Amino acid sequence: MAQETSCAVGPIVLLGPPGAGKGTQSKRIMEHYGVPQISTGDLLRENVVQGTDLGKAAKAVMARGQLVSDDLVCNMVRQRLLLPDTTRGYILDGFPRTAAQAGWLDALLEHELFDKRCPTRSWPIVIRLEVDYNQLLLRITGRRSCPTCGRIYNVHFQPPRTDEVCDEAHGTKLVARNDDRLEIIQPRLTAFQEQTRPVADYYQHTGRLISVNGDLPVDDVTEQIYRILEDHRA
Ligand code: AP5
What we know:
alpha/beta; Rossmann fold; two-stranded antiparallel sheet; globular; binds BIS(adenosine)-5'-pentaphosphate
């Protein structure tokens, strides 16, 4: 029975276009339920910084705002999901992003990761953040992050106390992400429309998709998500 009490919330997939708030909400869920955030974007960026083979293959594709190949991303996700900290649940942020990735994930869950002793180690709850196009543009162009502590700000919606400086990592100048430049935003949004929308259809057919209004302020979006997760736990 110890296994059962160690299950916190089960797998969660956060689906949504660039700038929808997946990372912001993942961090809150992570702190609230004590389950890891698995962001494929963050993992890929770490690989780019470290200069691994994966990072070398992904760098130019990411810089163009296109999707990294399914094989590379799925292999990276598999390795991450097999780490022991995922047994109490986990949040997939930015994965799956193609119908092929969604099918691959279901097969991995069914054949390698299902654990009947733990009811939450099962099919993921898929939460889609729906956000208006103009709001997305403001969020992406206004995003800044702290290179020291990783905290995410937004010059329009969550500005730091001092312009362009982190509130927590004293004196650290905030940076914009390389792919948040205007000319890269459109290809990212196009990739979402063409390759990631079918993922929502995939989950809709399996009855696992729940949409929330992601246009609302951060706290209100979090509240909607917690309500869904608590209903699911009950
Ligand atoms: P990734 O890092 O996943 O980027 P993304 O999907 O484009 O999403 P973002 O990080 O831009 O947005 P977010 O939804 O996390 O929003 P955030 O919370 O930061 O992917 C980057 C690249 O990696 C891809 O283009 C691709 O090349 C590659 N890649 C990654 N995964 C892949 C995969 N599975 N397959 C293939 N390739 C892959 O919020 C944005 C801003 O808005 C912040 O400033 C925040 O403060 C603000 N904000 C958030 N919520 C609110 C709110 N409710 N109200 C007001 N402001 C808000």
